[in-house]
Amino acid sequence: MIAYLFPGQGAQVIGMGRALYEADAVARSTIDSIENICKLPLKRLMWEGPASELTATWHAQLALFACSVAAYRAFRNAGAPEPRFVAGHSVGEYAALVAAEAIELEPAVDLVSLRGKSMAAAPPGTMAALIGLAVDKLEAICQTVDGTVTVANYNSPEQFVISGEYAAVEAACEMALVAGAKRAIRLNVGGAFHSPLMLPALGPLSAALATAPWKATRIPVVHNVDALPNRETQQFIDRLSRQLAGNVRWTDGILAMRDGGSRIFVELGCGRTLTGLLRRIDKTLSGLVVEDPRSLGEAIAKLSASGVIPDKESPQVTRRQYQLDNC
């Protein structure tokens, strides 16, 4: 069985989504619709930048959401099967909810826009990735540092992200390196996401989540905060509210989908971050990427060859054949 994954902030890059937009009518329609709803020059931001504008929290989250939903719709339209599970990393969870048909596109865009604006207005802070240090040691370091810093993302058994005030994050990085961490990488993000510094952003978002037109789903969504699959509307509201200042338990979520029968994971949208984490979590799992016409065609061809897509429904697709069929 197959699961679909949607990346979060940090995966954005100038040029994101352009090749798929130009090659695929479904992706083109999706990105145009999102741009019209959010009232931003989204395509210019994604394709021309500058990088400082694209990295801004509000812009980056809408851009990633747009690329992910466009890639998902183009992939399904090309013959990809319905997934057993969907999951998204941080803001990627909103794309996962659209894919699961828990919410329609327009209200989802409104929620992502509000989320990005609210997070950008929260107290300033930063994040850093730590590699090669046991998580219990990192958690203990965060508890001893003066100021606000916490483990925000549990990305793989060896990669964790801390989040908080600038000085506290810097101090925690220094202590982690002394304690044996292999690397400490400061992240180019616009705030201290998934930390207590995001609590001021919670009120407006929680109110909007509570009134959004949610629907129960057939496809389970595996949430960040508890790594549990869910199909129920009230739980969407609760878990998305908790996610803003809570942990992203990505490793546990991947393992839950694996234990639920998924062996193939497809990352949809921009970049290969989640596919890289997948290999660090369980090397026996297969990862595919869909971010442009080439990768989409390759993913369809591999799923066809492996029998996930029956030949009669979706024959082998080359990049050139895909472009001719979808322009």
In short:
The protein is of the alpha/beta class. The chain folds into two domains: 251 residues, Malonyl-Coenzyme A Acyl Carrier Protein, domain 2, CATH 3.40.366.10; 61 residues, Malonyl-CoA ACP transacylase, ACP-binding (Alpha-Beta Plaits), CATH 3.30.70. It is built from 15 helices and ten strands.
Word description of this protein:
- The chain has 327 residues and is of the alpha/beta class.
- The protein folds into two domains: 2-121 and 196-326, Malonyl-Coenzyme A Acyl Carrier Protein, domain 2 (3-Layer(aba) Sandwich); 126-186, Malonyl-CoA ACP transacylase, ACP-binding (Alpha-Beta Plaits, 2-Layer Sandwich).
- Helices cover 50% and strands 14% of the residues.
- It has 15 helices and ten strands.
- It has helices at residues 18-23, 25-38, 42-48, 51-55, 57-77, 92-99, 105-120, 135-144, 166-178, 202-211, 233-245, 250-259, 273-281, 293-305, 319-326, and strands at 2-6, 85-88, 126-131, 149-156, 159-164, 183-186, 221-222, 229-230, 264-268, 286-290.
- The strands form three sheets. It has a four-stranded parallel β-sheet with strand order 2-1-9-10, sandwiched between helices.
- β7 and β8 form a beta hairpin.
- α8 crosses α9 (166-178) and α14 packs across α15.
- The longest helix has 21 residues, at 57-77.
- The protein is globular and about 55 Å long.
- The protein starts with a strand and ends with a helix.
- Residues 312-327 have low confidence and may be disordered.
Q: CATH H-level name of the largest domain... which superfamily?
A: Malonyl-Coenzyme A Acyl Carrier Protein, domain 2
How many helices? The count is 15
Q: What is the CATH fold-level name of the largest domain?
A: Malonyl-Coenzyme A Acyl Carrier Protein, domain 2
Strand percent estimate:
5-15%
Count all strands and give the number: 10
Secondary structural class: alpha/beta
